[in-house]
Amino acid sequence: MTKFLSVCKLNFTLSIKSNMSFTIRNTIALLRNKQKVTQEELAEAVEVSRQTIIALEKGNYVPSLVLALRVSNFFRKPIEKIFNLEEESDT
């Protein structure tokens, strides 16, 4: 008997007003300080430079999915507990 694999495709549309932009905020500095981890230690653990950690904490850098997952695994927290998408108005 042949088995068939049913594939479901999920399509969705995200409608964004032209005057809206999004920022990714994070709690890396808070978690790092709470666990008494230095920027250098975190950087080494997630395989990036200390400058990348500084940029992440300041909100000047949006991490790749791989980096976000590494940070999530390091702190043993769900990714959505560390990174949040926030809507900002350009006006």
Describe the structure.
The chain has 91 residues and is of the alpha+beta class. The chain has a domain at 21-81: lambda repressor-like DNA-binding domains (434 Repressor (Amino-terminal Domain)), CATH 1.10.260. The chain is 43% helix and 15% strand. Strands 1-2 form a two-stranded antiparallel sheet. It is globular and about 40 Å long. Residues 1-16 have low confidence and may be disordered.
CATH superfamily name of the domain at 21-81?
Answer: lambda repressor-like DNA-binding domains
CATH class of the domain at 21-81: Mainly Alpha
Strand order of the largest sheet: 1-2
Q: Give the number of DSSP strands.
A: 2
Identify the CATH architecture of the domain at 21-81: Orthogonal Bundle
CATH overall fold name of the domain at 21-81: 434 Repressor (Amino-terminal Domain)
- Give the termini separation: 62 Å
Round the mean pLDDT to the nearest integer and report it. 83
How does the major sheet shape up? 2 strands, antiparallel
Structural class: alpha+beta
Order of helices and strands: EHHHHHE
Number of helices: 5
Beta-strand portion reads 15-25%
Over the alpha carbons, how many angstroms does the gyration radius reach? 18 Å
Apparent shape: globular
Which regions are unreliable across 5 or more consecutive residues at pLDDT < 50? 1-16
Q: Give the fraction of residues assigned to helices.
A: 40-55%
Give the arrangement of secondary structure elements:
Elements: E1 20-26, H1 28-34, H2 39-46, H3 50-58, H4 65-75, H5 79-82, E2 83-89
Antiparallel strand pairs: 1-2
Helix pairs in contact: 2-3
